[in-house]
Amino acid sequence: MKRRDITISSQGKRCAAWLYLPSESGPFPCVILGQCLGGTRELRLDAYATRFVEAGIAAIVFEYRYFGASEGEPRELVHIESQLEDWASAIAYARAHTELDAERIALWGTSLGGGHAIVSAARVRGLAAVIAQNPFTDGFTNLAAVKPLAMLPMLARAIKDQFWGWLGQSPSYIKIMGKPDELAIFKSPDVERDLRHLVPNGVHWKNRIAVRALLSLPFYRPITYASRVECPLLMCIGNRDTADSPQAALKTAQAAPHGEALCYDCDHYDFYEGAIFEQTVADQCAFLVRHLLRK
């Protein structure tokens, strides 16, 4: 297996990425992997890419603009349409690469990236398959599960941050994952355990985004794109997920013409390490082999 550092040009910005190639001769089928809310490529995506390459499938792991080693200012800005443009640019890169098979390109996304993979598959024709893991599928449904009073301090900060953004000022930031007594998007008494699942030892992750994103996320609804996904779609869903609605994810799978759902007895962050990771990545490899390698 070979891993190369590459860059993908997206709307004039360079997105940092890794290209993984099997040791055999190509052209290879390829799966493109995109991250969660505020995630960088070091947050366990290499673990998935390695397993896919071992199955004979090349992998591209990329970072959204404004995050990690990718270009873009201000930093840690979640702009949904820009991230979807980054997905489209990664697909175009894969299709143009001489060592990759343009007819056998799949998408893989986790959490917010899972929603992006669904939307991208609805917009881009000719993809071979899509995997959405613990996916963000319906901002309305996610918002309905939040206590209104708990949202008020974050909403006030988001409105203020967006106003300053229009004036060209630097963002105000909010934690993505935090303890119950912290101002954070996802609060849990098990946050230290969750961070251990998601962030490998030795990796520094800022665990923050510009708070203005909270004004757009509730209106982002990948579920409404599901009926336009023409290729096979696999949804990997945690029954105890409290970050992204498992019920909305099931409805998304049902709405897709070739959708299927696999449910696991786990929460949002169990997917990234341990027994649930081993089970889901095996299921995902089998799905990709079925649709990318078998004629």
Automatic annotation (TrEMBL):
- The molecule here is called Alpha/beta hydrolase
> Taxonomic lineage of this organism?
Bacteria, Bacillati, Chloroflexota, Ktedonobacteria, Ktedonobacterales
Pfam families attached to this UniProt entry: Peptidase_S15
Instruction: Quote the InterPro entries the UniProt record gives.
Output: AB_hydrolase_fold (IPR029058), FrsA_esterase (IPR050261), Xaa-Pro-like_dom (IPR000383)
Q: Which PANTHER family match?
A: DIENELACTONE HYDROLASE DOMAIN-CONTAINING PROTEIN-RELATED, POLYKETIDE TRANSFERASE AF380
This protein's species is Ktedonospora formicarum
Keywords from the named record: Hydrolase
Q: Which molecular function GO terms apply here?
A: carboxylic ester hydrolase activity
**Ranges for the Xaa-Pro dipeptidyl-peptidase-like domain?**
12-141
